[in-house]
Amino acid sequence: MMEQGRPGEALEAYERSLDLYPRRFNGLLGAARAARELGEPAAARAFYTELVESSADGSTREGLAEARAFLSASPH
Predict the structure, then answer these.
(1) 7-73 in CATH: which number?
(2) What Pfam families does the database record attribute to this sequence (predicted)?
């Protein structure tokens, strides 16, 4: 849905997925990206924070650098 320019629908779908599969990496990353696209930085921060906190120390999974950069650049 993100690729189709529908971030609101994408965010809803990711949130439903996270209800079933909490802390799932791809769900958190997708939700964070959708929230950013919608101009909801607080929601994006919450998803990115959970993504980083739920990832193994030293993990180099794609998306973690994006999450860390967002968290370090955006105000609390």
Answers:
(1) 1.25.40.10
(2) TPR_16
